[in-house]
Amino acid sequence: MAESEKGSSSGAGGQPMRDVPVDWEALEDAFENNAPEVHSYLHVVTGEVLRVVDGIADPEMHARIASDPSYMGVEPVSSREQYRWMERFIPMVDDPQLREQLAAAIDGKGAFRRFKDVLMGHAAERERWFAFRSERLRVFMEAWLTAHGLRSVPRPTWTPDAAATREPLTVSQEQLSLRRSRSAEALRKQLRDLADTLGARDLEKVTAFAEFVKARRAARAFAHRHEPPPHAAENEHEESTHASPPAGHIAARRAETAQDPPPRRAD
After folding, report:
1. How many structural domains is the chain composed of?
2. What's the burial of 115, exposed, middle or buried (CB within 10 Å: 0-12/13-18/19+)?
3. Using CA atoms, how far apart are residues 103 and 93, in angstroms rounded to an integer?
4. Among 49, 135, 213, 241, who pairs with 26 as Cys (CB 3.0-4.6 Å)?
């Protein structure tokens, strides 16, 4: 029993395990992305994952990271192994026609892209594929952490402090417009740079959200153009008021008429 507990708290070579609040989603993306120009590093203290892209980041970034013992290079899963995952997933698909399409998609160069394109039209199987791939990635990540003497622990929850809950400073509309115009180009460049570092699944999420924002903006503009001006509703109300007396007034007048005695006939 004591030996079992000791083994569970020791990594490779009998070294004690080090607790790390791993950012699992970021680490999963790092293990999945095996592009040669993308390099990912795990910070063994904070659990954050740093991604460095050749040609975009500072050329001296790799040297600075290598000299920092807090960073550990992430070894992504090879393309061959990820290809095997697709092969294992295809027999799990219930639809025989879809199985044939997926089997044909992974034949030859561009297999990953074609496999993803086929699943785009089958939402249920696409979600099953994401779950299957995440499970496989999780196995690789846990084995990698154990081999390096690291043990994942829950990440700390963030709570707003008193400074964050203070009332925001008042900013004029002119200042906001000026800031937006100045930062628009910088934001576009930042978005392009970020897109180069994202994997296929993250790019799908970003694209879907951008399409949603675009559609919502168009819908708001359409509704604003077809909204009647405020004075039109007021004029319509006034016209309806002068066109006919209230129903209650008509009913009261009829009741008074019915109660009046008929004129007496002169003898």
Report:
1. 2
2. buried
3. 11
4. 49
